[in-house]
Design a protein that fits this description.
single chain; alpha/beta; Rossmann fold; Arc Repressor Mutant, subunit A; 4-stranded antiparallel beta sheet; 8 helices; globular
């Protein structure tokens, strides 16, 4: 069964181009051209992945992402015509899994969509014996229920934050560089934007560290990468 990709874009030319190329790859496309329509359509159609522009009529892509992230678990790829770093960071922090800055290569977008879907499929199709709990001191990850707890407090994690935390917990004590994390967690087999990794690491620290500026669990190994201790 073909994956259903929802495209939210108010530029008719780009919308048509995205639709053509995604359908050429075998995907079923669903379209919306403003924020309010995007919310209504996503809720009713339940797509497998969302390609979401930031600059939209009626409601920004940021707000759409923030609302949908609380309601459903689907990969979100944000598109922005802006170049300010803060826009990219905000998008990731409110729950987007990745972003691309216009103009972008259609080949790269298709590669990212494919990688995000493969990761999503793998997560939902894990065999029963692989669904378990990971515990690192007072940090507990329930892979079956897709939940993480610090003591008795449940952590509010985006899907990609949860994937990153789970991967590092399964490989505790092992150092991974940014490119390795992009490949293992995001599924990219090419040199993506490593800023994505840095933002997710920083955001995870805000949630699992007592003093995020002086991390004791999620460590930076200078010149090498990141590792999770516990």
């Amino acid at each position: 069964m073909s994956h259903r990709i929802m495209i939210v874009e108010d530029d008719p030319n780009l919308l048509a181009t995205l639709k053509y190329n995604l359908e050429k790859e075998g995907y079923v496309t669903i379209m919306a051209t403003d924020g309010a329509e995007a919310l209504e359509t996503a809720r009713s159609q339940q797509p497998d992945l969302l390609v979401l522009d930031i600059m939209l009529p009626t409601m920004s892509g940021f707000e759409v992402c923030r609302i949908l992230r609380k309601e459903m678990n689907l990969p979100i790829l944000m598109l922005t015509a802006r170049t300010e770093e803060v826009d990219k960071i905000v998008g990731l922090e409110i729950g987007a899994d990745d972003y691309m800055t216009k103009p972008f290569s259609m080949r790269e977008l298709l590669a990212r969509v494919g990688a995000m879907l493969r990761r999503s499929d793998m997560s939902s199709a894990q065999p029963a014996d692989s669904l378990k709990k990971l515990k690192l001191d007072d940090l507990e990850i329930d892979i079956d229920r897709h939940q993480a707890f610090l003591g008795d407090t449940e952590l509010s994690l985006s899907p990609k934050e949860f994937d990153l935390l789970t991967f590092l917990a399964r490989n505790r004590g092992i150092v991974f560089n940014r490119e390795q994390l992009l490949e293992k967690v995001w599924g990219y087999d090419y040199a993506g934007d490593t800023r994505t990794v840095d933002v997710h690491i920083r955001w995870l620290r805000q949630k699992i560290e007592a003093q995020p500026a002086k991390p004791q669990r999620l460590l930076t190994i200078r010149g090498a990468g990141y590792k999770l201790e516990g």
